[in-house]
Amino acid sequence: MRSERQKPEPAQRNDPRTVTVDEASAFSRRYVVRTALVIAVVGGAVYAVLRQSLVSGLSLTGAGVVVIINYRWLDAILASVVQPGRPRFDLRSVLGIFGRFALLGVLLTALIWVPPIDEIGVALGVSTLVVAVIFEGLRWKEDGGG
Description:
single chain; disordered N terminus
């Protein structure tokens, strides 16, 4: 169980390093990205040893990194477009959406054109983000969220 954090004094509220009780129990996107990256790297190493193939481990790790990049881009796009009031469809949001699809397209093209890529490793790599979100959901519930 995490330790309880104190509410900051009025002078500390504007300090970005101060974490309030509400922020400590909030859903953390940084934790999800960090957890997914650890799962992708460690999982890739373990999978490479189990399959006795470096390509298998790199397939899992590479797919995990692509999913993490897509998650971060989607998070940034949704933060700028889906907001109270009028949505902002600026050039950065549109390019981010198309960039996401291009990155996924490159991954799928690599699956078809590059024969030594391990399809099971790619499927496991894509699922690393799902596992990280589940871990964050469990952590969040344990801290009193949701």
